[in-house]
Write a structure and sequence with these properties.
The chain is an alpha/beta fold. Helix content is about 25%, strand content about 25%.
C-alpha cells in the first residue's frame, strides 16, 4: 500500500506539465522530484533542508527573481505559518503570469479530528499554527488575489469498499483528510 505522502505527491505531480520550472516550498528532501516529468527544472526550498540541493530559506521571503516559475507547490506548509498570507504574497511574486499554485493542507473538518474530539483526545500537530477548511482556504486565497481552478477534499490511504469506491470521498467528502487546491493569479 502506498503511503499518504506518496499519494499526495502523485496527485500534485499529475498537474505539472513537462518542460516547466517548478518551485517546491517546504520540501526538506526533494521527494516530489521523483514523481514529476524528467524534463522539468525543479527547485526546492525549506527552513531546515535535509538534502544538499534544497535551498535553505523562508517561505515568507523567497530568494528568487520575480515572475519566473510555471508552478509553485505549497504542500503541507500553510498550516505551519503564523501568517500564511506572507507566503502567498511571495508565491504570487515569483510566479509567471499564467502559472499555477498547487496547494495541499490538512482539512480541519477531517473525520479523524472529528472522532478524536468526541473522545476528547488531543488532536492535531503541535507545529500546526493555523487550521483550514475548504471555506477558509478559499477565503485566504481570494484575499491574496488567487483564482481557484480546482478544489476538492481527498483522503489519502483510502479505506476501500466494493468496486474501489472510497467510503469518505463518496459518503462524506467534506470530512476527508486533506484539501487540494490548484489556482492561478486573478
Amino acid at each position: 500500500m502506498k503511503s499518504s505522502r506518496v499519494e499526495r505527491l502523485e496527485l500534485i505531480s499529475s498537474r505539472i506539465r513537462s518542460s516547466s520550472l517548478v518551485l517546491d516550498i517546504g520540501s526538506k528532501d526533494n521527494k516530489l522530484k521523483q514523481f514529476i516529468p524528467k524534463n522539468v527544472t525543479y527547485y526546492s526550498i525549506d527552513k531546515k533542508p535535509i538534502k544538499k540541493n534544497t535551498i535553505r530559506g523562508d517561505a515568507e521571503n523567497l530568494p528568487f527573481k520575480t515572475g519566473i516559475f510555471d508552478y509553485v507547490v505549497v504542500s503541507e506548509v500553510l498550516e505551519h505559518l503564523s501568517n500564511p498570507g506572507l507566503c502567498l504574497k511571495e508565491v504570487r511574486r515569483v510566479m509567471k503570469n499564467n502559472a499555477s499554485v498547487l496547494i495541499t493542507v490538512p482539512n480541519a473538518n477531517n473525520f479523524y479530528f472529528f472522532i478524536m474530539a468526541i473522545f476528547r483526545k488531543l488532536i492535531g500537530d503541535p507545529d500546526h499554527v493555523s487550521l483550514h477548511t475548504p471555506k477558509t482556504i478559499v477565503t485566504l486565497l481570494k484575499r491574496y488575489d488567487f483564482k481557484i481552478n480546482e478544489l476538492f477534499t481527498v483522503y489519502f490511504k483510502k479505506p476501500k469498499i466494493n468496486n474501489n469506491s472510497y467510503i469518505l470521498e463518496c459518503i462524506f467528502p467534506m470530512l476527508c483528510q486533506n484539501i487540494f487546491v490548484r489556482c492561478k493569479q486573478s
